Amino acid sequence: MNNLKDLNLDQRAALSPKEAREYFRKGQVLPTAGISAGYAQANLMIVPQELAFDVLLFAQRNPKSCPVLGVLEAGEVSSELFAGGDIRTDVPQYMVYENGVKVAEPTDLSEYWRDDLVTFIIGCSFTFESALIDSGISVAHIEQGVNVPMYKTTLRSKTAGKMSGPMVVSMRPIPASQVADAVRITSRYPAVHGAPVHIGNPEELGITDLSKPDFGDAVDIQEGAVPVFWACGVTPQAAVMESKPTLAIGHAPGHMLITDIKDSQYQVP
Amino acid sequence: MNNLKDLNLDQRAALSPKEAREYFRKGQVLPTAGISAGYAQANLMIVPQELAFDVLLFAQRNPKSCPVLGVLEAGEVSSELFAGGDIRTDVPQYMVYENGVKVAEPTDLSEYWRDDLVTFIIGCSFTFESALIDSGISVAHIEQGVNVPMYKTTLRSKTAGKMSGPMVVSMRPIPASQVADAVRITSRYPAVHGAPVHIGNPEELGITDLSKPDFGDAVDIQEGAVPVFWACGVTPQAAVMESKPTLAIGHAPGHMLITDIKDSQYQVP
């Protein structure tokens, strides 16, 4: 088996999801952007069964920030979303939290796994970014080779049981002439955050300085571009952490689960 | 307060949801079709907390048959969906099941209520029927003054924990020239079962005789009409009953929760 880092961008894009997951299962670590082009990548949220109802209810009440693509019931480690895979090994890198505090960033969950763990697989905006680019709308953080900028807002998510917290948004600066197109295109992907939640006026979200994101990287904003905000998959993670469960596991930022589902399957209507 | 049965159809249609719920809270019993026109009516499913995750996961996996409009957490009796109301009294009539067996059909849940009960409010196709009629597509069971015919199919719902069972469908015969319109119109209401799951060929669903529905009433099928099948809100009830929880409560057929939400709010895009 090659070293994944030695593959060029075209070779990474051409990997099947199954091939990509095999690299990660062997312990190789690399951000997943650009790997297995055309296949949906997903956020991971693993919690003990006692918190699982609250997480699922949080998702039901906050569907834009927490679009659930699949759930592995207590102790299950595989799913039709990633056939033949194992959720404990097939993500490049994980973040393990105990009582709300990060304790490890392993590449394998074997030593942390418990049979009462429930896994939530949550949609990610990588999917609609391809659709934006295909329609001639450039995506600043991809062009600039950085992570998407994300901000905590003063909007509150709807509470569900022990789960509460701020809505986190991602921001993409879009030329004013293309904002309507960006709305139209992303609204066709409700399973991966869908239409923007806010366009322009970051102050109304409590964001005072776009150059200082709470997560990810700042991007240069081109002259005449409007900041457009989408609900972000970090939102449920923030709420889980606030509830301080005995154990919670997510993916390392940018190191996503690569699923067998084609991006196009999440497009409606 | 008048007797609800003494109101004519126009007077019933003109009642606000709050006024209608007040009649039911006083113990009056009447099917809710035609009451508070333009407001969404909903199915009810109340289960102990220990089954709540399975029910919500079942809904997540079977969104066409089990579209969740809202959830009242353990012990909660009111919600913004029916402001100022009480779920224990505001539905005209309930069905109480113990260990999967119906034990009562009360008009008030006070003597059955427990603080560990979680209430699921589930979308109902009454909403899209108004839209069909407004577009000139007649709805046979409404024209014929009977309940919609519903059938158990050989399709299985996706299992979630203890919840499993057949998909139940409702059937509306539609003139061949209007079937495409019926698909287009109902697909705009995903929160109330959305587009049909099957058009024509009832045998493929294991339905051998349309004149013998498993629930509701048979309808006369006009010459040249095609049977069109939609996922039905009875599906989750059937799955709950199969799991035989110590206690489960639904609404009596046709005796729905009248919400404060306008039908039009469930229309997309």
From TrEMBL, chains A, B:
Example GO molecular function: lyase activity
What EC designation does it have? 4.2.1.-
Pfam families xrefs: D-Glu_cyclase
Iron is among the record's keywords: no
Under InterPro entries, the record lists: D-Glu_cyclase, Putative_hydro-lyase, UPF0317
Is Transcription found in the keyword set? no
SUPFAM superfamilies, alphabetized? PSTPO5379-like
Q: Which UniProt keywords apply?
A: Lyase
Please give the PANTHER family that the UniProt record associates with this protein: D-GLUTAMATE CYCLASE, MITOCHONDRIAL (PTHR32022:SF10)
Entry similarity comment: Belongs to the D-glutamate cyclase family.
**HAMAP family cross-referenced by the UniProt entry:** Hydro_lyase
List the protein's name: Putative hydro-lyase QMQ05_03155
Q: What is the lineage of its organism?
A: Bacteria, Bacillati, Actinomycetota, Actinomycetes, Micrococcales
